[in-house]
Amino acid sequence: MIFVAVALYIIGYAAIVLEFFVPAGGLVGLTGVGSIIGGIVLIYRNYGNSLGFTFLIVALVLTPVLIFVYFKYFPGSFIGKRLILFKDQKKEDGFVAHTFSVYEDLSGKTGLSITPLRPAGTVIIDKKRYSVVTSGDFIEKDREIEVIDVIGGRIIVRKCNVKGGTV
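User: That's the sequence. What structure does it adopt?
Assistant: Structure tokens below.
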């Protein structure tokens, strides 16, 4: 029976290690933890408190040690070098985050809705198409709109009256 408990331990730790490689949403790791706990319970029930406590202490000491060893040596291992990105994405190499600074110039401009805005839709401002949202109101197609705010990549508009001013 002790061989079954040791096998549950080994299977449990193997499942926890496998969790790092298999995208299972934690299911494999939870199975491993359950296997280790099952091994400890099996030892407690069949061999008493002293051996059960020994297995519990081994699990409580071995788990953090294995986690430390994993994070210390895995990145330099054969598999770790293939799974972990070590290169920096530098601006000089052409890697830049998308910026929405081009939209900031739109604040206060007027345009024409080419789809109904309920509350999102498409407008034309200065002969360019933009995806926009309204400040909450429904705006029909082919209505004049004004950009009232730009937050990040979100362009917020409201409808204008017929004479070019805002409603």
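The first strand starts at residue 110 and ends at 113.
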